Amino acid sequence: MVGRFGNRKLAGLRRIADAKVSGTLEIDAREVIVDPRIPALSDVAAAVTFTEAGASVHEGRARIYGAPLHFDLSAQRGGVATVVAAGLID
Predict the structure, then answer these.
(1) 61: nearest Cα among 13, 20, 22, 28
(2) Torsion sign across C-alpha atoms 83, 29, 78, 38
(3) Burial level of 40, CB count in 10 A (0-12/13-18/19+)?
(4) How many CB atoms neighbour CB 17 within 10 A?
(5) Which residues are paired to 6 by β-bridges?
(6) DSSP 38
């Protein structure tokens, strides 16, 4: 997996609980295992944008069972995540 990290902002280091952070992590990976209970994703390309309040992916791409998959992801503080995925499996 190749990841490129570009941190855009980091402030408030005197009190870490009050820190503000934002950035983008670009992911380009041959295989990603999200959870061992679901099939691995291959040829993954996505940009994860994050702040201290959550993270998101818009127009991520991957393959599952060899077929193309497009996805968006939104995650908020506290572990709540929403994934919208589209693709066809024959």
Answers:
(1) 28
(2) positive
(3) middle
(4) 6
(5) 24
(6) S
Nearest to 29 by CA among 12, 10, 48, 15: 48
- 41, amino acid identity: L
Say if residue 10's pLDDT is above 70.
no
* Cβ 62 vs Cβ 89: under 8 Å: no
- Residue 70, token pair as written in the block: 């497009």
Q: How far is CA 59 from CA 15, 29, 80, in A?
A: 35, 15, 20
Boundaries of every domain in the chain: 2-87
Q: Report the predicted TM-score, pTM, of the whole model to 2 decimal places.
A: 0.75
pLDDT at 2 over 90: no
